[in-house]
Structures are given as structure tokens and as C-alpha cells.
Design a protein that fits this description.
seven-stranded antiparallel sheet; seven-stranded parallel sheet; 25% strand; Hypothetical Protein Yjia, Chain: A,domain 2; Rossmann fold; globular; alpha/beta; 14 strands
Length: 368
Amino acid sequence: MTAPTPAAESVAAVTPIPTWVITGPLGCGKTTVIARWLAEKPADQNWVALLNEYTDAGIDALTVAAAARGAYDVRLVPGGCLCCAGEADFRRNLQDLIHHVRPAGILVEPSGIGHPGGIVEELLAHEAAGNIRLCGVIGLIDPANLDRTDGTSVAVREICDAWVLTKADLAPPEHLKKFRAIADELFPPKSWVGEITQGVLPTALRHTVEDARADREPAVSVSRPRAHEAERAHAHLPAHVGAGGEPRSIRQGLAERREFHHLDRHGARWIFPRSMSFVELRLLTLLSSDLSLFDADLSRPERLKAVIRVDEDAWLLVQMVDGRLSMQPSSWRRDNRIEVQLPPGRPWNVDAWDRLWARCLRGSTIAS
């Protein structure tokens, strides 16, 4: 998708329209989820489903319309994915909904072959203009598609706020276990992870995702068994929050930071606004070198994970484990996130890490 339009012509003094994206590969159950959503909404609320079908047959639109309850509108963008061939129709429909229809809510369903990144970018531009409120991106996967590694399937896992296994009643135990294992490795961690049947999304999913977006911190999935969370806590530092773990600003208006301390392990998580970006070469050069040469209070982390914006529409997933640094493109779009964990017993100076990130921000005036 090309750069967002002046989507962003704001509608003054009106409440932003709650908007959700339901995305996933072909056959994963997106249409069923949307149909159930509209069937269960309050009858007096007018919701609009903006559906993208690869053909112009309109079968999905008919399915959703047959299930909807009360006031609704189903709009079809046929003949190609929203991020390319259907881009103009998508924008035209979205502008009409924002400026004229003003529904109680909007559900956007990209086709199962389209990349969701451009769509989310467009919606975020509208959110910045105060036109909509992007409540969340719900990524769906069914048992038959768990092993898919094509670009769209990977992008869905990366960009979503909640990751949901559909048709769970048809999944053998090994598929459920594999789904959870994949979910545990996703970064940023998802606000909600769980399984559903018959296309019914739990109310808790929507609340958890909305709360997490409002707080800009991922919440623990309410669907995870306590035993699973306790087990996961030993491997993931953020489960251990010390008394001083409340987020505080590095510099006014720049970022939120949360420190974690457990026994002799220390670490922190930083969240920078998506409007900020990092200088890729500078960051990777520093992380690849002896950090103590930059600051005597820094040492090589045991584990580092980050999703950072490095250009207008380019984001990277950066990982370091046991000194090995890797990077790859990421479809995450919400914000910049960095997570660091030091080896046991290493001295911890969070201000030194603040200085490192400040040096790598685009537009930084700190000498190279």
C-alpha cells in the first residue's frame, strides 16, 4: 500500500469510531467470526463490515449479512487485496464511513492473501487524525494452517494484538500444544492468546486487547492457565515485576520504561512512540560491538528483543541471544519496543541503557 492519504483529514469534535481488523489466511474462519460478532452486537447499534474478497462473487458478504442482527451494513471490496488492487475502493469506503455514515463500529477483513501491514498503516493514520480508534488487530489461524510460513501468515502473527486458534474443537492435542509454543515465541508478546470454536470471540478478548492498547503495555492473556503462566515466567523476565517496576519516562514525551528485577537478574522494557525511528546502522553497530566501550556501565545482554521503526514504512525485529545478533523485517506497526535482560549477577544501570537508545534515535544530536 502506498503512503496513507490525507486520511487524515480529521472530523472535528466527534467521537472516533471504534475499529477492529480481523485478519488471517484463507479458510481460517474470518467471515464466521465477523458474522458472529454482528449477530451478537446490540440491535440498536449500526456496525459496518468492510470485507475484501479475492473475487467479486460476494459469498462472504452474503454470509455476514445473513447472520447480522439489527442495524448493519456490509461493504464488499472485490477483485484483489486491500493493500494493492483494492486500495482505492478501500480508501473510498473508509472515507465515506468516517465522514458520512458514522457507524457505531467498523470491522475490517483483509483477504486471506493480502498483507495486513498497509491496511493497519492506513487505519493508524486515521486514528492519528482523530477519525477512528483502532481498538485492535485480531489474528486468526486454524489448525490446518499452523505450519504456514508464507509472508502473509508470518505478517499476521507479527502485527496482531491477539492471536487466536479457530476451529479448536477439530484440533488434536499436538496442534494445541504447537499453537501455544509458537505464541510464546512471538514478540512483542500478544495481549491475548487462546482457542475458540464456532467463531465466537470471548468478551474478555476484546476488553483485554483494548485495555492493553490504551495502556501501551501488553497484558497477560486471561485465557492462559495459571500453571502455564508460572512455567513461562521462568523463561521470560517481564513476568517478574519488582516494587519499582512502574513505567516512568526516560525524557519527557519520549518513552516509557519498566524495569524488572528477580533474584540476581535485571532487565527492562522500553516503549517509544511509532512516530519515532531508529538509525539502523548506528544501533546494529553498537549492539555488535563491546558495549562497555560506549559506556562503562553497559554489558552484553543475555537476551535482547526489539521491534523498531527504521524508515517510513520499514520495521525490524532485532534479537540477541548469547551474543548472537540477528535481524529481519517485521510487520509490527503499533510502537517501538525494546526488551533487555542481563545474565545473572551482572551489575545493572538502567540510565546507561537509556543513553544508548537515545544515541540511536533518528535526529539524535549525541555525537557518533
